[in-house]
Amino acid sequence: MRLIDVVQFASGSLRGSRVRTLLMILAMSIGVAAVVVLTGLGEGARRYVINQFSSLGTNLVIVLPGRTETAGIGPGMLLGQIPRELTLDDAQALLRSRAIGRIAPLTIGSSQISHEARNREVVVLGSTANLLEIRHMNLGQGQFLPAGDIRSSESVCVLGAKIKHELFGQQPSIGAWVRLGDRRFRVVGIMAAQGESMGFNTDELVIIPVASAHMLFNTSGLFRILVEAKSRDAIEQAKRDAEQILQVRHHGERDVTVIRQDAVLATFDRILHALTLAVGGIAAISLAVAGILIMNVMLITVSQRVREIGLLKALGAPAAQIKNLFFAEAILLSGVGSVAGLALGEIGVRMIGQIYPSLPVAAPWWAVLAALGTSFGTGILFSVWPARRAARLDPVMALARS
Amino acid sequence: MIQLENVSRVFAVGDQQVAALRGIDLNIAAGDYVSIMGPSGSGKSTLLNLIGLLDRPSSGTYRLDGGNVTDLDDVQQARVRSKKIGFVFQAFHLVPRLTAATNIELPLILAGIPAAERKARVAQLLENYGLADRADHRPDQLSGGQRQRVAIARATSMHPAVLLADEPTGNLDQATGKEVMNLLEQLVAQQVTLIIVTHDPAIGGRAQRQLHMVDGQIINQTGSAVNT
Prior knowledge:
The complex is a heterodimer. Chain A is built from 13 helices and 12 strands. Chain A is an alpha+beta fold. Chain A has a 6-stranded mixed beta barrel, surrounded by 4 helices. A two-stranded antiparallel ribbon of chain A has the order 8-9. In chain A, a hairpin with a 2-residue loop joins strand 6 (177-180) and strand 7. In chain A, helix 2 packs antiparallel against helix 12 (365-392). Chain B has a 6-stranded mixed beta sheet, with helices on both faces. In chain B, strands 2-1-4-5 form a 4-stranded antiparallel beta sheet, covered by helices on one side. Chain B has helices spanning 44-51, 74-84, 100-110, 115-128, 144-156, 174-189, 201-204; strands at 2-13, 16-28, 33-37, 59-64, 67-68, 85-88, 162-166, 193-198, 209-214, 217-223. In chain B, helix 3 crosses helix 4 (115-128) and helix 5 (144-156) runs parallel beside helix 6 (174-189). Chain B is of the alpha/beta class. The radius of gyration of chain B is 17 Å and the shape is globular. In chain B, a hairpin with a 2-residue loop joins strand 1 (2-13) and strand 2 (16-28). The interface between A and B is medium-sized, with 26 and 29 residues.
């Protein structure tokens, strides 16, 4: 029997019982669509987190004051010690490492900002000119903090988009003076509106030179030092150098914590990947259920078509050929079901993309392959038994059945 | 053509052994027209199924066309059925979802004959059996006589040497039955070996050679065995 005839015969018998065939295709396609949509969601969440992280900067190493013990309680905690401050000198010393390209010290505090009659509470970020590029921020108008000596406490500030709007409305603000605490600052730039990113809303920040922030808040410590390694390969070296340089400066005491941003990222990546797999696995169960449904219906088909099977045998079809005909039916069902399911899943993914545009939903290629594989696999696996039953029918008995 | 030597067929019914055929010796020559008659349960259908290789003897040997076909495996049996044997059944056994033309084509499809050749042969058969205007009708749109004609056309589509008919007129009225018998007998004229199982003496009596069976044995033969 020729392959094309096998396919034609099988599709003919599927068309012969339309409702049954449509229901089976529906079951199969819902299973495939579930896998596609759910893994698409999981993968979307993973990519969303990765995008958020990489929008914070690339090749970043972050230095925090104080040593975070991963287990147990550090001696400092028991004694109530405050960890040693990170200073601007510490920050500048980091530049001695050949692995480190740029740094941006950060000081953070809150203060009252006012312009004419309007005032509000704002978070003030003290940093340097490098922050803009290291953190991948976008400037809306004007200029960012002036480059130059890290210790020069110029009275200039950059406003977040929302702050600018609240203080100035539609009026031009570049060159205007605002009051922060007890000092006056000249506005040199406005940040582009970009909304929340990892809990940091730059729209509601005011950025001033780090030395000015130290004077404003009467402190000399740093909240963080953002360190940009020269390349991806230099990240580990930059981290070790940072630890070593600061240890030497702090009299041999390792009292800072240095983390690689991509280590955090990798952890998130692993967690979300596992989540995607788990969700995909749950969806695959519905495929297995569809497979059992196919088996059930095929078994009924075999007993309904006993006479036809007997006839085919009498007309010269060996057992293997009968088996092939039933396999062909199962493969056709799974095939059409899978394609319909992929289309259904794609529609679902698009719809989610419409509803949550910020979530980059897309089923990963391996999930699509796995869904197709599972649907074909279950379709074939669960038709083995019915096909064998059909092939083993005794033709004399089968023909005598009325 | 067909040589049965001491063939028996025993069925296990529960824990009892029931012999449907006991020591049958039978020679049928190519082009013979044989009818097998007897009461129901006499083993005539079992004998026909054995000859048609749908069943196997419990003991004895069966030679078809000179070759021993007693112990062929499933694939070989199917090949012999496909090439040498055609079946006509009492209940027609047409596939309900297929058209008359496709039903006739079925043995050719199973044998893997190219589509172009199949179409030509089916067109010829439809013509021969007066079914040309019924080609696209499904079995439920055909009369009993037309259905049996489709079945005969199907049975002859592979040009078999042996045609086995089990009560071919059983589901037909007398006039249509006669018409069907005429068609079958025309095939004998074309050197096809025709074996008919029936319990109707009027039908069985038309054969040149008549076998009467009782309790799994051939008790009496009438007519001439042309060349055994």
